[in-house]
Amino acid sequence: MINLFWHSLHKSKRAALILLMVIPFFAFSQSKKPGSIEYLKYSNGFENIFVGSDLSQLPGYKLAFLDNDNKFDADSCLKFEYKDANLLKLADDLKLDLIGIRTYKNKVVNIYLFFKLSDGYKILRVFLTNYGLFTNRPNDYADIYDWNSSTVNLSLRYNVKVDLGVAIFTCNRLEHDIELMKTKQYLSFFEGI
Fold first, then answer.
1. What is the rounded distance in angstroms from the CA atom of residue 179 to the CA atom of residue 173?
2. Residue 55 in contact with residue 111, Cβ under 8 Å?
């Protein structure tokens, strides 16, 4: 009887050990499937453009300065247009107007997907399918939808005045670095006075 009890206990420990080894695999594979904020973290950007990655990982011939402006913006960032006709087509009846990239110290901080306002709700459906229900809606009266995660955020915004919409992927780590740099500049300015 004691031997049988010991044998069944040993079996249950083995089963528990196997279960502990398998659960992380299933949890990790779940993040690779569309329909949750975990998929946003896993995707980490749009198609083959990843936030936080080095700009040199993208083909140089597909990059051009956005609006021919090769000057740094107020945040010490450069803006590029990513020219790839294949990435502009999201579905049979859904097409982006432009893909923009904003970089800080040669790393991708933001990816901008510009589209016609008339396609706004189609884009929203795509994001709901890919990333689940938005995590924040800052204003009930404005068409702004945010998916926020620990590593990457996505904001979908519509601007009726210019008949344009934009989806913005943001690398949280680099956004934090930019804010830290601006704070240091601000403090050093006042130390010099």
1. 10
2. no
Residues 81-107: what's their mean pLDDT? 94
pLDDT per residue as tens digits for the range 51-87: 999 999 999 999 999 999 999 999 999 999 999 999 9
Indicate the pLDDT class of residue 11, thresholds 50, 70 and 90.
low
How far apart are alpha carbons 177 and 36 in whole angstroms? Answer: 27
Q: Could you give the 3-state DSSP secondary structure of residue 164?
A: strand
Q: How many CB atoms lie within 10 A of CB 120?
A: 22
Check residue 171 and give its pLDDT: 98
Token couple for 175: 């956004």
* 13 vs 137: CA distance, rounded Å: 46
Q: Please name the residue ranges forming H helices in 34-163.
A: 37-43, 85-88, 120-131
Q: Which residues have CB under 8 Å from 91's CB, separation 6+?
A: 122, 126
